[in-house]
Design goal:
Elements lengths: L2 H12 L19 E6 L13 H18 L10 E12 L8 E11 L3 E9 L9 E11 L10 H8 L9
Antiparallel strand pairs: 1-3, 2-5, 3-4, 4-5
Length: about 170
């Protein structure tokens, strides 16, 4: 039996869907609703002279948690529910390096019963209109003690909705 006979009927299932972050519209600065500036550090650069990919993950985590603490009143050490990261991603379009100030922009892609999908645009030199990288992650909010999913309360949800961006795929 040839491989084509096996793969062809399953092609639509096996074909990788285009992720939202790979669409060029998500590189546009105008889509992001909440911003912070972050100074790059000498240690952020790797041997190739640009910011190491691990640092982008730190920046993404920083802006999400800053928003949750400042705007949603999350108290990480005391809140009854906490967010567990269940998936993460980052796509890179152009390098950043030290010394520069990057601007991280945040939007919410999806709010579920107990989960939130965040997307972050990383803008080099705090001036560009196209993101150098686009990444994000999904939080599932769980009870601090049982670690079971915990519904997002209405007040928290309303704060998240202030940076929600509804996206319709073509």
């Amino acid at each position: 039996m040839s491989l084509c006979r096996v793969v062809r009927p399953c092609f639509q299932i096996l074909k990788r869907e285009k992720s939202l972050s790979s669409l060029s519209e998500y590189r546009d600065r105008s889509l992001y609703k909440y911003f912070i500036d972050i100074q790059t550090r000498w240690r952020d650069n790797d041997i190739y002279g640009h910011v190491n990919n691990v640092v982008y993950g730190e920046w993404i985590d920083t802006i999400v948690n800053k928003y949750l603490i400042e705007k949603c009143s999350l108290q990480p050490l005391q809140s009854s529910s906490i967010g567990f990261v269940v998936s993460s991603y980052c796509e890179y379009y152009s390098p950043t390096s030290y010394p520069s100030i990057i601007s991280a922009g945040l939007l919410i892609k999806k709010i579920g019963k107990s989960s939130v999908d965040y997307q972050v645009g990383i803008f080099a030199n705090n001036q560009t209109t196209k993101a150098a990288a686009v990444g994000g992650f999904t939080h599932v909010f769980v009870n601090r003690i049982t670690h079971r999913p915990h519904p997002i309360d209405q007040q928290f949800r309303s704060k998240l909705l202030t940076i929600f961006h509804e996206f319709h795929q073509k």
